[in-house]
From TrEMBL:
One of its GO terms (molecular function) is transferase activity. It comes from Geobacillus sp. (strain Y4.1MC1). This is Aminoglycoside phosphotransferase. PANTHER family: HAD FAMILY PHOSPHATASE (PTHR47829:SF1), HYDROLASE, PUTATIVE (AFU_ORTHOLOGUE AFUA_1G12880)-RELATED (PTHR47829). Keywords: Transferase. Residues 36-261 form the Aminoglycoside phosphotransferase domain.
Amino acid sequence: MAAIIPVRKGEELPADKLTAFLRKMIPDFPEEPLQIQQFSAGRSNLTYLLSCGEWEAVLRRPPLGPVAPKAHDMKRESAWLTEIHPLFSLAPKPLLFCDDESIIGSPFFIMERRKGIVLDTEFPAHVTPKEEICRNISETMVDTLVALHHLDYTKTRLANMAKPEGFMERQVYGWIQRYERAKTDDIQEVEALTKWLASHIPEKSEAAIIHYDYKLNNALFAEDDITKMVGLFDWEMSTVGDPLADVAVAMSYWIQEDDPPSLKNGFGKTPVTVYQGFYTRDEFIRAYAEKSGRDVSNMHFYLTFAYFKLSVICQQIYYRYRRGQTNDERFRHFGKFVPELIKYAWQLAMR
């Protein structure tokens, strides 16, 4: 299951102010003391479990310290969930948004809590990861992404919250700029890689609702059926954009058995997707193409971009770690991991 831990030092929430706010905003809020714990997963926004009597909810706030422009926008994520939850039941229901920074020191929103199993680096003790189970989980991941991309965003208010025209061009140049703002060390391949990406942007692309942080440990599976998805979280980057970029970003997190150690262990322990039965990235992409009917012949570009995007995300986190804006020791080794990701992306570009 998703690990729930005591709140990390330096990432505490002011319980008294938060309790007073919740009692004001939520009808019949329990009188018991508010309990605050933290979800250990996640490397960007901070996520907390709030408990008070029988009441439970999840609070999300931006990371500590300065953040990149337009990043970690709690208001947008809450508004996006408000629109997509009725269309796509795996998205959690937001309960309220607060932009009063005097409460916890930043904007935040609160959403429903869902219970289940998060698969990351191991299976729960009661589940034997047989090959058939791993295959079925892979199929569920593909089917869910296809279903999300099939939604008609033009009939919703989401159409007014995103701009699909020129999406990939904005993405390529935007992530290059984010890298420059978070740069700490010179990496040999960056200049050539960014020039390659800029010169290979597709002229045309489709538009669909995309999650854009779609990965196994952002999904929640049923406790009584590990192959059934019951929740999908971390919608911060969701927008209307190129569905193939969404597939590629998912694949940048999807580790397989023959990957180099630098990829397998980049986020710590090796993910369960190396187990026998899980799709390889090629199998995932082929299954997506077959079920969605989309042309994936240019996936080479999208995968190269996705690994660059992932390297920039890790670089931004490492930048905050270097500046003392987070105490999470998981990020110490990102200074070595980022160059490995850049190198891997460049190798993809040259194939």
